[in-house]
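Hey, I was hoping to borrow your eyes for a little while. No rush at all, and the record is pasted right below.
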Amino acid sequence: MESDQPIRKDPYIALRFPEFRAYLSMRFFLTFGYQIQAVVIGWYIYHLTEDPLSLGLIGLSEAIPAIGIALYGGYVADKSEKTKLLKLIIGAMFLCSGVLFLITLPAVSGQIGKGNIVGMMYGMIFCIGIARGFLGPTQFSLMAQIIPREHYPNSSTWNSTFWQIASIAGPAAGGLIYGFSNVSVTFFLILVFFLVSFASIFFIKKHPPQYVPKENIYESLSQGVKFVFRNKMMLGAMSLDLFSVFFGGAVALIPVIAKDVLDVGAEQFGMMRAAPALGAVLTMFAMSRYSPMNKPWRNLLFAVTGFGLSIICYGLSRNFYLTLFFLFLEGAFDSISVIIRSTLVQLLTPDEMRGRVSAVNSMFIGSSNEIGAFESGLTARLMGTVPAVVFGGCMTLGIVSFTYLKTKKLVSLGLKDIHPH
């Protein structure tokens, strides 16, 4: 006799796959160590140079190789066995961090000189940027091989949640470890975290590549680009993320809002920095139980609309606690759009093209935060801080409206209607 009880969805279904748990461990410890390293490198280089421009060069040193090699990284990810490639990538990052550890040892750094240390650090950052160009497409391709298609939405939620937690905890841990010890101890612990990430790969089975190139590399790479630009939903999702972050990069102006608009101190500034991340993590936990994928395109447009409105309210607020609330909402809405976009890209991409499509996605998304921060800083200088924030939010709403008019047919689609082409 069949039960009349409805089937209850399992919010932890993706976590019940041992390979996915190993994948999350690999990505969490790598991200955690990488975020600690990013904080420590910034502090240490500024300590040596006392030049704000040197901080901008850190991001540039890593972004240029990461974006420049991304398409080739996607091609290699598609035609390679993923676990072997990940071992090479994380091994390379481990070696770069090992060099950073050695040159910051007091016995070594005293013999090299400040200028040479900084130059060598930029060199290692550049090499890590190259590794990053291969990392994103390889991770994306592997996740699709270890999780059944019907569990992609749940796996994307948990994947994003663990990444957010590592991204929040990493900088905080980096600051505490560096503050209570020294730079060499911090780099040693980074090496330990990278080693744990590397070891996690051994708990993931080898999966044969699902793509054997029959054409030359140029044609293979162009296939990935053409696929994205032919798919209206995928191109729309990537473009929405790119332009909403570009115009909505108001988080970069939090120090100015805190000091010049709200007139608060360092503790309140820290709370403002944490608010978007807290909103993102709590929302992602909620999304593991209440998936936004029942009407993904409609919900994506709603989420980006909420993101734009929260930016406008954040810019207009003159009350500290209201500002915290609007920053919390900004992070919450952004996390919903991240979950939907990453799930859509997973669902819409054929297995044999995952690396190349992920590479195009990383070229859209990978630099949007840095470019968005630059846009916010430039408009703040031209217009003033508050008008710049409000302008960014209004532009985000304008982009959503334009996207809606161009994609009305996608609004009514449910998850079951979305298939790779």
Q: What stands out?
A: Residues 114-146 form the longest helix (33 residues).
